[in-house]
Design brief:
With 285 residues, the chain is α/β, with parallel strands linked by helices. It has two domains: 6-84 and 211-276, Periplasmic binding protein-like II (D-Maltodextrin-Binding Protein, domain 2, 3-Layer(aba) Sandwich); 87-207, D-Maltodextrin-Binding Protein, domain 2, CATH 3.40.190. Helices cover 33% and strands 19% of the residues. It contains ten helices and eleven strands. The strands form two sheets. The protein has a six-stranded mixed sheet with strand order 8-7-6-9-5-10, with helices on both faces. Strands 2-1-3-11-4 form a five-stranded mixed sheet, with helices on both faces. α3 packs across α9 and α4 (117-130) crosses α9 (247-263). The two termini are 31 Å apart. The model has no long low-confidence stretch (mean pLDDT 96).
Amino acid sequence: MAEAPTVLSIAVGRTPRTEALFTGAIASPLLRLNLAQVPVISRAFAPMVREGRYDVSEMAIATFLMAKAAGKDLVLLPAVLAARFQEGALLCRTGGEIRGPADLAGRRVGVRAYSQTTGMWLRGILQESFGLRPDAMSWTTFEDAHLAEYRDPPWTGRARASADMLAMLTVGELDAAVFGTELPADPALRPVFPDAEAAGAAFRAAHGFVPVNHLLVARGDIARERPEALSELLRVMRAAGAEVPGREALAPAIALAGRYSAEQGLLPRPLGLDEVWKGTPPGLA
């Protein structure tokens, strides 16, 4: 008699990279995936970090690095579920005083959470390319980090209750703001980077990769007790369309994200790659 398939609870966003998992077009006789219904996948990150709600979850790279540094029992899997150039996500008013990134010095910048991965990449770019340290701007946040133990640095402030970041930017309470994948379609707003596409190309020329936003993580007990299930999951994810590049290919992005995160006060120090991959089953590429 054939063995029953291993059941894994998993939270991933429904995107072209994962759609085949949701429809059943890609499946495995060895696995049964209980796909959580999470319309906005970032809402799965805090429950995964704080209580290990799922066996496996999509997770922002900044959130994972913060969780790992805090000793959370999570392991990284070498699957990329979201990666993009970030420059187009930093918006300002079309008729405002901001003409380019250098003009952000001393300005008020909104971001959903200081720990948001898009914000992490953008702050790193602003420091690296324009000499703007994170504390050169005043950051207005709207929610806490996914890691409950984390406290935002002193150069941040919390928006008033029920405040809306887009509205604050539109009326001039903010000079710029960081948005996610859903950018507002408003002609009154434009990217802070005059040519966001060229800025993204310059980042790739300098660093050799497209910034990674979301990876796949598993609870440590799953990695220890069912490593073969995670290996099969990566095979299925690759067949569905997710990028599974392996540890070596991910090393530059993870190393730079770790350095940026430490420079911005998200981590007490950069994590070595051996620390990042600690607990990941050695058989996983």
